[in-house]
Design brief:
five-stranded antiparallel β-sheet, Tachylectin-2, Chain A, DUF4185 domain-containing protein, DUF4185, 21 strands
């Protein structure tokens, strides 16, 4: 891929600074996800993940309380307690990758986002960032602030070149924020999409602005070409790390950060790499699990730690369990646990049924199970029919 095109595709945009909230009067604003017929054009291009009809209005949150899992409340959308349409100009969004910013605030990165259906381009944004200081999730997840949520980083916006840029993982290291994202070239059939590359966006100001170091780009070319360390990476194994999850090591693994990777789409296996926190931007120091040991600098050797299909996933160390926890959602929301980051991982336990139509389960860092204070594990989960994110609680088992 020509370097000028890479520079264009990796271009990161303006800040997430919040400005005045969108007007909510019926004469000049209408929530796309609450309009009945106003399905946004970008959503039509993004084929349904599991079949079915295009999205319609956001409905009442589906009530589910069974087997230790319970839906708590909408996080986003006009019908959420957070009223994100009026406060942030968000009527529909998904993903909600969550991490602690290092000072007790939860940051959440969302994917493709739209707002006012009557505004130009339906106020489409490729991604947005929201914040929370809510320490008690039992009654819902409260968002902080108000004002129109701008894009974190941009994308070309052209199908077949770069349709969008979607966050898949986030972590705070040394007072800086790091988001791993994928550059989506085009949407394919259901649960299939094609990426140009994945990369790391960095923020020095708690998410108000972002930039992408070129040497963090993993080009999805399927070939290995030796290049200088400062260039984007062309290694066949980079295809295994187009979508990610970060987990800080716990127990004997303290002092390491683990990056779980999957290929683009929802059908690949999961792989794992590790690095020291200070080396997050130096891909030459990453170590990859080859099935027996850790190999430095070569993603080609990575072997699957969980067989596919693995979808958008999140992974965290649970002091309560003294084990790692993994969530994904190929057929309902599945949970696996492991004593070591590389596994072996337990057989999956279904914690939410497929008929809830949830995807992208992203754990909340202030869950009791992740702080060692109880078995409750909270996660954001997206629902396609409403194209919004809800809060779900489940319990982990010792």
């Amino acid at each position: 891929m020509p370097s000028r095109l890479l520079s264009l595709l990796a271009c990161t945009a303006v800040s997430t600074g919040l400005v005045s909230a969108v007007p909510t009067g019926t004469a000049d604003a209408r929530a796309c996800s609450n309009s009945g017929t106003g399905v946004p054009i970008p959503i039509i291009n993004k084929l349904l993940p599991r079949g079915g009809s295009p999205i319609g209005p956001q409905k009442a949150m589906p009530a589910y309380d069974h087997g230790g899992t319970k839906t708590i409340s909408w996080v986003t959308g006009p019908k959420s307690p957070n009223r994100t349409f009026g406060r942030f100009g968000i009527s529909g969004t998904d993903v909600g990758v969550a991490w602690d910013n290092g000072r007790g605030q939860t940051l959440m990165a969302f994917g493709d986002t739209f707002g006012n259906c009557l505004a130009p381009a339906q106020q489409w944004r490729h991604n947005v960032l929201l914040r929370s200081t809510d320490g008690n999730l039992s009654d819902g997840l409260s968002l902080s602030g108000r004002g129109y949520a701008g894009e974190m980083f941009g994308a070309v916006g052209v199908e077949g070149v770069e349709k969008t840029a979607i966050p898949t993982a986030g972590i705070s290291i040394g007072g800086k924020q790091y988001v791993n994202y994928m550059s989506v070239r085009a949407w394919g059939p259901a649960s299939v999409w094609y990426t140009n590359y994945s990369a790391i966006a960095v923020s020095n100001n708690n998410g108000r602005s972002w930039y992408t170091p070129q040497n963090t780009i993993r080009v999805n070319a399927g070939i290995t070409i030796p290049v200088p360390a400062s260039w984007p990476s062309f290694q066949a194994g980079d295809a295994k790390f187009q979508q990610s999850a970060y987990a800080k090591g716990g127990g004997a693994d303290s002092g390491w950060v683990y990056q779980y990777g999957t290929p683009n789409g929802r059908f690949g296996a999961a792989y794992v790499a590790r690095f020291r926190p200070g080396d997050i931007l130096d891909r030459g120091k990453y170590q990859y699990w080859d099935g027996r040991t850790w190999i430095v600098g070569n993603p080609d050797v990575a072997r699957a730690v969980v067989r596919g299909p693995v979808t958008e996933l999140s992974v965290s160390w649970s002091p309560y369990l003294n084990r790692y926890v993994m969530l994904d959602s190929p057929r309902g929301v599945l949970m696996r646990t492991a004593a070591s980051p590389q596994g072996p991982w337990s057989p999956p336990r279904r914690v939410a049924p497929s008929n809830l139509e949830l995807y992208a389960p992203m754990m909340l860092p202030n869950s009791p199970a992740l702080r060692g204070t109880g078995p409750e594990l909270y996660f954001n989960a997206s629902r396609w029919e409403d194209y919004n994110v809800m809060l779900v609680r489940t319990t982990v088992r010792r």
